[in-house]
Amino acid sequence: MDGIKRRIGRSIRARLSAWISLVVVIISLISGVLSFTVSFYEAHELQDDQLRQFGALIKRQGITLQGASLDLAVNNIDHEARIYLRDLSHPLSDNEEFAHNMPDSFSTINEQHKSWRVYVVETVNGQRIALTQDTALRNEIARDSALRALFPLLFLVPILVTLINFIIARMFLPVSRLAEELNRPSSDERCRIDEDSVPDEIQPFVVSINRLLSNLYESVEKQKRFIANAAHELRTPITALCLQAETLDAEERSDREVKFKRLRAGLNRTKILLEQLLAHARSQDEPKLPLEICSVQQYTQEVIADLIPHVQRKQIDIGMPYIEDTNVRMIPIDLYTVVKNIVDNAIRYTPLGGQVDVSLRRRFEFCEICVLDSGPGIPEHELVRVKEPFFRGSENLEQGSGLGLAIVSQILSRAGGKMVLSNSVDGGRHHGLKVQIFIPLA
Ligand SMILES: Nc1ncnc2c1ncn2[C@@H]1O[C@H](COP(=O)(O)OP(=O)(O)O)[C@@H](O)[C@H]1O
Ligand SMILES: [Mg+2]
């Protein structure tokens, strides 16, 4: 019983069936009571009309009653239809109720244990005759005919309830079909549901499911691409490292030193690549570390200090011509990663002896970190693609994974910021890439 209740509580179809069936039964009961009452009173009126007609006949034909009473029972006539005639000028001794001065119309009289419906007429020769019918019998006739009026209703209600349930079940068929379709293993990986074959009411729901499925499909595809690219990126340096390690033993002592250095450099590059891969994978996740108020100037100076060995190696002239310190609300390591990737790119892709300028400004509700270099810039047709993971410029000879800008974009989109890349056209000291980072102020 509890199970059925729970099912009805959860299922719209069961609830709809139960409520409509209940409404049909209640309305049928009310209409049954009404039609029983109306039929009952109409049957009474019909019987009164019979008495009235009979009276009119007696009056018009001048019929006189010989004796005190007359039973109008005729063979083959239903016993219930009996009408008795009584002469009111000769009341029977046990019949005091039928008084001589009864009015010439209808009345109901109780005689001992019986009740009578009486209609009094006066004939042309002054005889007053009472046409009487047994009230109990009249009630029985009226009840029978009223009950007969209920019969169609008694048959129709169960048929109606069954029909309603059948129609509702059919109406909900598309919903069951939809569930079947979703459960069926599909050859189409996108597993789209045909939106045109479902009723209008559930179409928005199906559109949302399709959108969800397509997002899911795209994110799975992205993950697949990332894993394939990561495997590819890692395979090359690791294979090279293995080969170097294998040949190390066979080398002369003096050569071994050089090879060992190369091996160490290779291992270092692989470590950096792995760190980039992990950073990218992490940047896809929801952050688990708390946001903090960070000084942009402090983190930028930290990044530049950490990159000094590269700056010196490439003899880069790095400076901060404009500093307007602002605070942003970010995970500190995210801010560090963003600035480090941009400044690192500028140093890496600028030729020996080049210049890099880092400026910090407040722009409306944003903090702007602008990094300008004197490198070759990025060909216009590659400007959009460089933000994609694993995309590396066609014209660069530097080592890299192609993940740096993808990581920056991911972190910025989560922080409500954005990155703008353009080739500098100021014709002055810089003619390389201009990277503008905008982060909402704290
Ligand atoms: N300052 C820059 N000057 C010229 N090209 C750049 C600069 N920054 C990035 N790029 C180009 O964008 C590509 C993607 O950069 P990034 O995502 O950091 O990957 P990676 O540096 O590992 O190659 C680089 O391969 C390079 O071609
Ligand atoms: Mg880079």
From TrEMBL:
Q: Which is an annotated GO molecular function term of this record?
A: phosphorelay sensor kinase activity
One Pfam short name: HATPase_c
Q: What is its EC number?
A: 2.7.13.3
**Looking at the UniProt record for this protein, which Gene Ontology cellular component terms does it annotate, in alphabetical order?**
plasma membrane
Location comes to: Membrane
Spans through the membrane: 16-41, 149-168
Print the keywords alphabetically.
Kinase, Membrane, Phosphoprotein, Transferase, Transmembrane, Transmembrane helix, Two-component regulatory system
First-tier enzyme category under EC = transferase
Can you give the residue ranges of the Histidine kinase domain?
Answer: 229-442
SUPFAM superfamilies noted in UniProt: ATPase domain of HSP90 chaperone/DNA topoisomerase II/histidine kinase, Homodimeric domain of signal transducing histidine kinase
Q: Which InterPro entries match?
A: HAMP_dom (IPR003660), HATPase_C_sf (IPR036890), HATPase_dom (IPR003594), His_kinase_dom (IPR005467), HisK_dim/P_dom (IPR003661), HisK_dim/P_sf (IPR036097), Sig_transdc_His_kin-like_C (IPR004358), TCS_sensor_his_kinase (IPR050428)
Which SMART domains does the record match to this protein? HATPase_c, HisKA
Query: Does Nucleotide-binding show up as a keyword for this record?
Result: no
Name this polypeptide is given = histidine kinase
